[in-house]
Specification:
Blueprint lengths: L2 H11 L4 E4 L6 H9 L4 E4 L3 H15 L3 E5 L3 H15 L4 E7 L20 H6 L4 E4 L6 H13 L6 E6 H5 L20 H13 L3 E5 L1 H5 L3 H11 L3 E3 L14 E4 L6 H7 L6 E5 L20 E6 L13 E4 L2 H18 L10 H5 L19 H11 L5 E4 L3 H9 L8 E3 L8 H12 L5 E6 H7 L2 H7 L5 E6 L4 H9 L15 H7 L3 E5 L7 H10 L3 E6 L9 H10 L1
Parallel strand pairs: 1-2, 1-3, 3-4, 4-6, 5-6, 7-8, 7-10, 8-9, 10-11, 11-12, 13-14, 13-15, 15-16, 16-18, 17-18
Helix pairs in contact: 1-2, 1-6, 3-4, 3-16, 8-12, 10-12, 14-15
């Protein structure tokens, strides 16, 4: 076989099902090998950024590596934002970029992106765990295995291989290993676990905050068990939303950007003595702009696979390094042991009194409002009431994300996905396609603003071409809502360059071959409508006219921007 065929054989061994990308002359060896594969389907996207976002969405939902590819030069650089987004959110994505033949290096070849031109290996090296050019065909298997292992080992993340076309056509010996080159590793520090359990046992008023690492580690069952064992109130960060059921009696909701007033009041209360943080880096959006009250006068226990996160933002009393699922499982074991020895020291806490004194959302009456134009709060309420509990929501970046974080309650793990780490507008439009391919039996809904849809909306044609029935809900308010409202709320900014003429997304969607529906009134999004859309099994765009002047819950973001300035 040739080098490209060996590479694709390795992808098959990783149970890769889809290859997202756009072909080009230099990438033909890979496309030829994918064409011969009985397992991998090629998904033709409309832009390389869309390919990277789809691979990201597929990886998040499936838990497997998502693979995307591009031709050389601009094809490779177009992938970059999507790969940077995967890097920021620790998503295992493999990017395969083509390269001109090695004999052409340094001679002015069309779209050359070697070290003699625009060096994509170095460029991708800044946003991946591994970036390398396969210069020797006999190294193809070894380098591919290394990349795939690194993508899923430790803290997951994207990897990149650059593939000169002449090298990929070279014949190689099949060096597929007879055994797996992945090794399950679940290390933990037993003494640190005992120390953390001791702090939780003697705590009078603990709380828990869950980040993206709780979802990546698939630790949600163990976390729920831990919370119920000691009656610990639980909040999530925006990236950790869906790591804990939001209607559970111990749920505080989201803390941080667009978060719940209940979570904010509870976690910033100095009466909390122990804060257990699982899989969060305590970034700006997860902390109300690094509010010092979150950790003030508290014992902070951090669980993270990356030990460099311990004490990076807030002082850390105990650092538990390792996979979140393994660490929480060991913590549960130790807590049960200590409970059997001395259960009289455990004081069970309830949130009922505190919850009765605090709202979980701002302006809750607006979620039931019949006013016109349609309130975005009501839109979130109608969506939740109209869709099954296992629906996977992809939220794009913008005020639509703020509305979804604040008003859309989710109860199932990994049913809320947003590219928050890098904050790429257009992510949710394309990533939802990959997510649907990973979960074809479940409804997948992309909540997106009109600004984000205008960036990547052509990927609706990708869904049409491949019969992928994603549902896009476009919040149409003729503005970049977060920017416009941010300018209105800021003492430093002028209101400028954030409005545009209203776009008819029904016509655009129909032109791309999708089903299109316009919604203008409260209640038009209903169970019967969504059941009909799901049953029809077509890519569908719902163009929703929302109240442009309703202010999204972004006050903490504006405050932190003012502080940074």
């Amino acid at each position: 076989m040739n080098a490209a065929e060996l590479l694709v054989r390795h992808l098959e061994s990783e149970d890769v099902r889809f290859f997202f990308g756009i072909p080009g002359g230099a990438l033909e060896p890979i496309y030829n090998a994918v064409h011969e594969s009985m397992q991998i389907e090629s998904i033709l996207t409309k832009h390389e950024a869309g390919a990277a976002f789809m691979a990201d969405g597929y990886a998040r939902v499936s838990g497997n590596v998502g693979v995307c590819g591009s031709t050389t030069g601009p094809g490779a650089t177009n992938l970059l934002t999507g790969i940077a987004s995967a890097h920021a959110d620790s998503v295992p994505v493999m990017a395969l970029t083509a390269q001109v033949p090695t004999r052409s290096f340094g001679r002015g070849a069309f779209q050359e992106s070697s070290a003699e031109g625009t060096d994509v290996v170095n460029i991708f090296g800044e946003v991946t765990k591994y970036s390398a050019m396969i210069i020797n065909p006999d190294k193809t298997g070894e380098m591919t295995r290394r990349a795939l292992k690194l993508a899923k080992s430790g803290r997951p993340g994207p990897v990149h291989l650059n593939l000169p076309s002449d090298v990929m056509y070279e014949e190689v010996i099949n060096d597929m290993p007879a055994h797996s080159y992945h090794f399950a590793s679940a290390p933990f520090d037993r003494m640190a676990v005992k120390q953390a359990a001791h702090l939780l046992m003697k705590s009078k008023n603990p709380a828990m905050i869950l980040g993206n690492g709780a979802l990546i580690g698939r630790a949600t069952e163990e976390i729920l068990e831990l919370a119920e064992l000691l009656d610990i109130p639980v909040a999530t960060t925006p990236k950790g939303k869906s790591a804990f059921p939001e209607t559970h009696e111990l749920a505080l909701g989201v803390f941080g950007f667009a978060g719940s007033p209940l979570a904010e009041s509870f976690l910033l209360d100095n009466n909390i003595d122990v804060l257990l943080a699982i899989g969060t880096s305590f970034n700006e959006w997860a902390t109300h702009g690094w509010d010092q009250r979150l950790a003030y006068n508290k014992e902070v226990i951090q669980v993270d696979i990356d030990p460099t996160q311990f004490g990076r933002v807030y002082p850390c009393s105990v650092g538990l390094q390792g996979d979140s699922k393994a660490v929480v499982r060991e913590l549960l074991f130790e807590l049960r042991r200590q409970l059997q020895l001395n259960d009289s020291n455990v004081e069970f806490r309830r949130l009922l009194t505190f919850k009765s004194m605090h709202e979980t959302v701002r302006d809750p009456y607006k979620a039931l409002s019949d006013e016109m134009p349609l309130k975005p709060q009501r839109l979130m309420n109608d969506l939740r009431a109209s869709l099954p509990d296992d629906t996977i929501f992809f939220a794009d970046i913008g005020s639509n994300l703020a509305w979804a974080i604040h008003y859309l309650k989710v109860n199932k793990p990994r049913t809320f996905v947003a590219g928050i780490g890098f904050g790429s507008m257009g992510y949710g439009v394309a990533a939802a396609i990959g997510g649907k391919l990973a979960a074809p039996e479940r409804p997948v809904v992309s909540i997106v603003g009109d600004g984000g849809f205008l960036m990547n909306g052509m990927e609706v044609a990708t869904a049409v071409n491949h019969d992928i029935p994603v549902i896009w809900v476009v919040e149409n308010n003729a503005q970049l809502g977060m920017v416009w409202h941010g300018q209105q709320m800021s003492a430093r900014a002028h209101v400028t360059a954030s409005e545009f003429k209203r776009v008819d997304f029904v016509k655009i969607a129909e032109g791309l071959g999708a089903r299109a529906i316009r919604v203008e009134r409260p209640g038009e999004i209903s169970r019967s409508l969504m059941d009909d859309i799901i049953k029809a099994g077509q890519p569908t765009v719902i163009d929703v006219m929302i109240d442009a002047y309703e202010r999204p819950p972004i006050q903490s973001r504006i405050k932190s921007l003012e502080m940074i300035a």
